[in-house]
Amino acid sequence: MAYEELNHEERKEIWFLDSGCSNHMSGNKEWFSELDDQFRHTVKLGNNSKMAVMGKGNTRMKVNGITQVFSEIYYIPELKYNMLSMGQLQDKGVTILIQHGKCKVFHPIKGLIIQSEMRKTGCRRLQKGYSDT
Predict the structure, then answer these.
(1) Fold (CATH) for 3-125
(2) Does pTM top 0.90 for this prediction?
(3) Is the model's pLDDT at 130 over the cut of 60?
(4) Alpha-carbon distance 95 to 121, whole Å?
(5) Would you kindly state where each structural domain of the chain is located, as residue ranges?
(6) What was the pLDDT predicted at 116?
(7) In 91-122, which positions are buried (b, 16+ CB within 10 angstroms) versus exposed (e)?
């Protein structure tokens, strides 16, 4: 299923692992368990457009049945898709393995924390997330 085929509500609930994304980003304010709404920044997208970052914080997300906490997520109200930056995850010490049509993310202590099927677009779609506030 292509991104465009997802309706607005589905897009708000799905996270994508993306190797080209420099920061974790979400447009769903309700998912933030902590949010510094004074933080301001801009991000440049692949099409050279820019979007305003209206906060930064943490969220909890259920991935493959396990609740994970992700930090330093940019809140961008205009964002259509929630993005997890593979680079930002690696900066936190996780290992990302892409092999046999699957993407696996390993935490150095917890082991496998995310597993997802590969997409033709290069992004890895995760199951629907949620905030555990």
Answers:
(1) Cathepsin D, subunit A; domain 1 (2.40.70)
(2) no
(3) no
(4) 21
(5) 3-125
(6) 80
(7) eeebebeeeeeebbbbeeeeeebbebebbeee
